[in-house]
Every structure is written in structure tokens, then in C-alpha cells.
Amino acid sequence: MTATVTRPAPPRGPRRARRPGISRQTREMWVLMLPALVPVLLFSVGPLLYGIGLAFTDARNTRVHQTEFVGLENFTRLLTDAEFWSSFQIGAIWAVSVTVLQFLAALGLALLLNEKLRFSGLARVLSVVPWAMPPVVIGLMWKLVYHPDAGMLNDLLGTHINWLADFSLALPAIIVVGIWAGMPQTTVVLLAGLQNVPKELYEAGEMDGAGTWRRFWSITLPQLRPVIVAITSLDFVWNINQFGLVYVLTQGGPGGRTRLPMLFAYEEAFRYRMAGYASMLGLAMAIVVLAVLGLYLWRQMREAK
Amino acid sequence: MRITSALAAAAILTLAAACGGGGGGGSSSAPNEPVKINFLSLAWQKESVAANKQLVDEWNKANPNIQVTYVQGSWDNVNDQLVTQFAGGTAPDVIHNDSPALSGFASDGYLLDLKDKLPAELKSDIPQSAWDTVTFDDGKGGQGVYGVPFLQESQVIIANKKLLDAAKVRIPTADDPWTWDEFSEAAKKMTKDGSYGVAWAMKSPVNKTLNLALNFGGTFFQTSGGKTTVKVGPEEREVLQRIHDQLYKDKSADPDALGQGTADPLPAFYKGKFAMLPAGVYLRQQVVEQAPDGFEWVTLPAPKGTSAQQGAVSQTLSIAQESEHPDEAMKFISFFLNGTNQAKLAKGDWLLPTSQKAAADPAMTTEENGWDVATASAKNLVVAPFLKVNGFDEWKSKVATPALQEYFANKITIDQAAAKLVEDGNKVLERYQR
């Protein structure tokens, strides 16, 4: 199917004379792209389209149910579903605060690592360690840190708090884990950006009598801007779609206080078996992410000009 | 050019076919090859896993033609796992689960109705009250049996003997348990010198409170005209209120335990931070294994209200609808769950066997480790009403768990909790009754 769609009927008439050259090139291009394209189509685009299709049906994960097309019923139900909105709100708080705090912390760390300190090589390596851990392992590790009786945190503070089961503390507690888990890649990208800032700019700034703060504000930040835009957008998408970490830490509890949208969709699909509704949830989240991201990137681009 | 695109299309088609066809092949077996059965077991306590594996080995040696493969699962995610496996057609033949989960899978058509397959001996060894926990609507107007119940859990009170004796209260027996008033009074007496009378571990409060609510006839659900709704009347409120009173009025319950899972308060229990821990019978195993030397403890029967009834759920073995060897699977189940073997399994899991033969086993009635009290409590078990409610799982996790957690944390009043349970609850249940 793909091959026929992607190759339009050869143009007729006067352009025919140039055809062999172009077509040979296109042909080679497609042949070369094919190995990469097939898995993408089969395993990404296919399921995506299938999921979008499911969103407009009342599909359920059962053996006896006759799936029917229901149009926008799932969508209207989503709009009036208080559970969804509270989960969406939690997701927004989580994604924005993790992304922003992660960025600030990573920027600080990157600036520090960019200085000529002793052991900076070792420090750089150490700062990437969390990156090497799968989210599930990170979750298990922090679960031990937060453990009410044997946890390191309670030992350290001399308190007796069940961090992950407390209604008001659970969300902040997992946000801290989110920041910790995502910092390395942000730091590394920012560090790479920092090392690309031309030294001459700083020298010129120093000549003009600019202080450290002034140099950071007027040279470092503007120079880093494209890197910052790229990494914060990626972090935002990554965070709002976070699943494994929170699933291990709290499974969405206590009382749904940490039920991120993706956990909500997972529960709908695999616990309550409402596959159609869960697909609509996924679709809605994809649209929201695209919209937020589009707006953000568009504004950044415009300001950059 | 035509040829290349045709080739490309053919390549994609082959790939797609290869991927799509992967799951279907290789299942048919030659006539004299042994039949292979997968058995998903959720046993997790060490003794219990050992007992399970030993029984499987025993079976495999005796039945070279029906070979059973032991597959380890986990209670934490078994239902998520089964939903995906059922949908993908890769579910195990024999499935270990518990009765609350069966009603959903049964009405979705994933489980085999065992009504006509059960051997008479197995059927008569297990009392009707246990069979009731696995009997559900078959979606076609009739009733089907969707599993074989084998282990049941009842609630008991595990108590620190020293603190209990020091309080000089009447020691309850299986024939004459405490009333809830006596229980609260005893808890008050034991609250002194920095230790509490009781600890309620209410991280997962729903099943525990719903099962105990039957003490006062609280069923939480009512069905009329084929429509099930939630009800929280005076009967349902009794146990809720009494536990809440212990926490906030009598201050005889340890507030630290509230957010913990059932086994989490044990270290504090050994230290004497509180005297009594209401828990399922299986928790005795951890006390036996972990308690420091010289720690004396006893098992007390659960308190009674207007009756001593408790809601029962059972652990079950079911057969997948799409299993290719249902008859062989049934043979394996009836071996696995015969009286002798059930006694072994019950001992391994520290739960109560459904088999009457197994319950008469001397190991089940010894005074040691409170087996006598535990086994005696089996007579109070009745089918938990919520077992038959379609959508109970969603009600539990979306509505009841947060509402009860907030109520026990004293963040909302009992009226607010009741309103949530009923109003939000009915909305959830509606989805399942269309």
C-alpha cells in the first residue's frame, strides 16, 4: 500500500523528458528509506491509526462485546468526566513543575560543571548516572528512600511521615523524583550548549565591564536559547507522558492524587477494559501536547526573529 | 519502476504476514505427544510456592501424558496481565485468581463455565457457601460456575499476649467472641504508657471494611429490578463509625498505622507500640517467621455485631475459555485441590481450606499458631455481597478507596463519605449496566 501511495503517477507531457533523472533519484531514495520506513509504518503509524479509529468506537477488551461506531460519544463523556479533569490537572501540575524545576536545577548544575573545577570530569560522569537507570529501578529506589519506617528521608529528618501515602505530600514527593530522574539529559544538553558559546563574547563582555550576572543574562542565556527551547519542549512531552516511574511509586494513589493522565488511560484500558474510551483519552492527550508545544515553539520562533 | 514498487509492496506484505501470523502457529500437537498445560500460580509466600511446585511435580510424574508448566504470577498485576493475555489469545489454561476478579472476566466471556465439568467428589467436598463465591451470571440469563474456590481468608485479631493479659480483659473465644463494644472497651484499656490498643492498617480499606460491615448486616449494595445501586445506611455506617471512633474519639488506635499496608505495622507490633492488629488469618505466617524471640502472641476471633458474619472471598482456579485442553485442565485442578493437597496449600499460605476433608486435618485444628481460632472462623464466612456487583473493581479504586481513606484520615465526615460512595458510586456502576 505504501509503495503505491508514496509514488504518484508519473507526470505526463512536456516534463516527461526530465523524468528518468528524477525518477531514478526518487527511486533510490525510496529504496534506501524502505528498511527504516517499514518498521515505522508497521509498528508506529499502524497502531496509531488503529488507536485513533478505536477512539470513535465503544470497543471493550472483552470477548462477548460487539464493537460499534459511536462517533463523538467518548469525547463528550471525556469533557464531562470529573475524574479526567482532575487527572488532567494533576498531569499539568506535574509536567510543568517537573519541566521548569528540572530545567533550573540542570542549568545550575551545567554552569557548575562548565567551570574549570578539580575532578570536573568525574563529576560530569557522576551526574549522568541517573540516566543509566531504567524508570522502574529509579521508582523502586525512591520508594525505599520514602519508606515510612525504614526510609532514609525519615531517618534524616527524624520524622515519621508516610510520604507516598499522604494526600498532600504524595504529588510533591513524586515531582522531586521526576526532577531527579530527568536532570541528567537536560544537564548534558545544556552543558553541550554552554561549551558552544564562543569565548570571544565573554572576553568582549569583560572588556566592556560586564559583571558575572550581566554576562550570564546577556550572553549565556541568549546564546543558549535554541538549546533551551529544544530541551524544555522535549522534557515537557516526556514528562506529561510519564508512566513507569509513577506507576511503580504510587500506582496513582493515594486516592488518585498522583493519577497522571497516562495512568488514568492505562486503568481505563487494562483494569476497566474500556478500550474505546481509553483510546479517546490518549488521543486527547496527544492533541493537548501538540497544541501546547505548537504554541510554545511558535512563540519562541517569533521572538527569536 | 513498476517492478520495483511491486517488489516493495510484496516485501511489506510478506513482512506483515510474518508478523501477524507469528502468534497462531505451533499449537497443534501430534496425537501421542503429551498435552501441555500452563498453570498461572500467584503463590508468593515461600512455603506456599514450594507446596505449589511440589504438587505440580507430583502430577507431572504421575501423568506423563498431561504435562503442566508452572508459571509464576503476582497478585499486584495479575488482572492487568490477564486482560492483555486474554485479548491477545495467550492466556494460560489454568488460572489462579480470586473470586472478586472472576465476575468481570466471566461476564466478558473469557472464563470457561465449569458447571458440567466438575467431578462429583470435588463438588461435594467443597460446601455450597464456597461455590456461591464463584457463581455468576453467564451473560445469557443463566448462572455459571467460573472457578473452583480453594482458599478463604477470614479476619482475626492478632494480639500481643503480654499487653492483653496486663489489661485484664475477658479473653474472647471462637464460641464467644467480643462484641464490638467489648472490643472498643478492651482497646481503651490497653491504651496506656505510650502504647495503643489497636492498629488499623487502612492503605487498602475497602475489602476489609466491607467484609467486617456484614457484622451489622451492612451490604453496601442493593439490587432491584436488575439494577444495582450503592447503599450506605445505618447498617453500613456502624463499623465505619466504630473504627473512626477508636481513632479520633477514644484515641485507642495508633494513627501511624493508618496509611500502611496490612503487614507494614508488624515491626511496631513486635515493639509493643500497640496491642492488637486486626488482619487476615494469613498474617500469622509473618508473625511466626519474623517475631523476635520471646515475643508472645495469640490469635483472637474478630468481634461480632448483630452477627459474627464476615464477607468471604476465595482464591480460585479457573480455566480459560480458549484453552485447547479444558478436560485435561479440569483433571489437573481436581487433583490439585483434593482434600490432602488443599491442606498442604492452606498450610503453605496460612489460609483456610474450602475442602471439608482438609479442614478436618489435624494440622488445621491445632492450637499452635492460632489454627483452631482461624479454622473456627470459617463457619462465619458468607458470600460477600460485592462479589456479584459488576463494576465493583472500578467503584473500589475510583470511589471507595479515596472516600474511605479520607474518612479514616478524618478529612471528611461520615455523611460526606456516604454521599461520595453512593452518588459517585452509582455513576460508576451505571457504565456497567447498559
What would your notes on this structure say?
The complex is a heterodimer of chains A (305) and B (434). In chain A, helix 4 (82-114) packs antiparallel against helix 10 and helix 8 (170-195) packs across helix 10 (212-240). The longest helix of chain A has 36 residues, at 19-54. Chain A folds into two domains: 2-54, no CATH class; 80-304, MetI-like (MetI-like fold). The model of chain A is unreliable at 1-11 and 13-17 (pLDDT under 50). With 305 residues, chain A is an all-alpha fold. Chain A contains 13 helices and no strands. Chain B is globular, with a radius of gyration of 24 Å. Chain B starts with a helix and ends with a helix. Chain B has helices at residues 2-21, 46-62, 78-88, 99-107, 120-125, 128-132, 161-166, 180-190, 205-213, 234-248, 266-270, 283-290, 326-336, 339-349, 356-359, 362-365, 371-377, 392-408, 414-432; strands spanning 35-41, 66-72, 94-98, 135-137, 143-145, 148-152, 155-160, 196-198, 221-224, 227-230, 274-280, 297-301, 310-312, 314-319, 352-353, 381-383. Chain B has a six-stranded mixed beta sheet. Chain B is an alpha/beta fold and 434 residues long. Helices cover 45% and strands 17% of the residues of chain B. Chain B folds into two domains: 35-152 and 313-359, Periplasmic binding protein-like II (D-Maltodextrin-Binding Protein, domain 2); 155-312 and 386-432, Periplasmic binding protein-like II (D-Maltodextrin-Binding Protein, domain 2, 3-Layer(aba) Sandwich). At the A-B interface, helix 1 and helix 2 of A face helix 1, helix 3 and helix 18 of B. Chain B: Pfam families: SBP_bac_1. Chain B: Keywords: Signal. Chain B: Residues 1-20 form the signal peptide. Chain B: This is Sugar ABC transporter substrate-binding protein. Chain B: InterPro entries: Bact_solute-bd_prot1 (IPR050490), SBP (IPR006059). Chain A: Residues 1-20 are annotated as: Disordered.
